[in-house]
Amino acid sequence: MTLRFYFDDDSGSLPLLRALRGRAIDAVRAEDTPMAGMDDASHLRFSSSEGRVLVTANKRDFARLHRDLMRAGGTHGGIVIRTQLVSVGELARRLSELSARVAPEDMTNEVVFLTEAPRRH
Questions:
Q1: How confident is the model at residue 118 (pLDDT cuts 50, 70, 90)?
Q2: Nearest to residue 34, comparing CAs of 26, 23, 42, 24?
Q3: Alpha carbon distances (Å) from 31 to 34, 36, 39, 96
């Protein structure tokens, strides 16, 4: 099974979703769900409940949410943080590589920063 992605309000575009889906990767945006405009914690809860890894460009808030959740003994389905502005094709390639390398169960409570090469934190 491959990773399934959920893009919060500030990280998913239709061209990106088309590029991922063209690679047979399951991806949805907040705008495609009832979650558009919700707060960050709600996005993380939703993505986790749907068995999806959250993708965001909001490093500060989601790193804090992860830290606070781990301190409280909580859990989430994984977070991917985009740390660079890259083309749609490059982002699709990086997410595809991550999906090929990491099993969904191995993303539980993990934060991955997409830099030059995806790395886990």
A1: very low
A2: 42
A3: 7, 5, 13, 22
Which CATH number is associated with domain 5-120? Answer: 3.40.50
Rounded to the nearest angstrom, the gap between the alpha carbon of residue 49 and the centroid of all alpha carbons in its chain is 13
Percentage above 90 pLDDT, the chain: 79
Cα maximum dimension of the chain = 38
**pLDDT tens digit string along 39-78?**
999 999 999 999 999 999 999 999 999 999 999 999 999 9
- Taking residue 26's Cβ as centre, other Cβ atoms within 10 Å add up to 16
Q: Which residues of 31-68 are buried (b: 16+ CB within 10 A; e: fewer)?
A: eeeebeeeebeebbbbbbeeebbbbbbbeeebbebbee
CB 62 within 8 A of CB 54: yes
Structural tokens at position 120: 């886990």
Q: Give the pLDDT confidence of 87-105 residue by residue, as tens digits.
A: 888 999 999 999 999 999 9
First to last CA, the chain: 22
